[in-house]
Design a protein that fits this description.
Blueprint (H helix, E strand, L loop, with lengths): L2 H16 L1 H29 L1
C-alpha cells in the first residue's frame, strides 16, 4: 500500500466508525474472528502435544 491508499483507508474507516451501528457490527465481527482464530490455534497446539 502506498501512502495515498493508507490515507483513503483511514478516511473510510473513520467514516464507518462514526456511525454507532457500524461500530457495533465491526466490534462484534472482530470478537468473532479473534475467538475463531484462538480456537483454531488451540486445536493446532493440541494436535502436537
Amino acid at each position: 500500500m502506498n501512502e495515498q491508499e493508507v490515507r483513503e483507508a483511514i478516511k473510510e474507516w473513520e467514516g464507518l466508525s462514526a456511525n454507532h451501528e457500524n461500530k457495533v457490527l465491526y466490534e462484534a465481527r472482530l470478537k468473532y474472528l479473534v475467538l475463531r482464530a484462538t480456537r483454531i490455534l488451540s486445536n493446532m497446539i493440541c494436535m502436537y502435544v
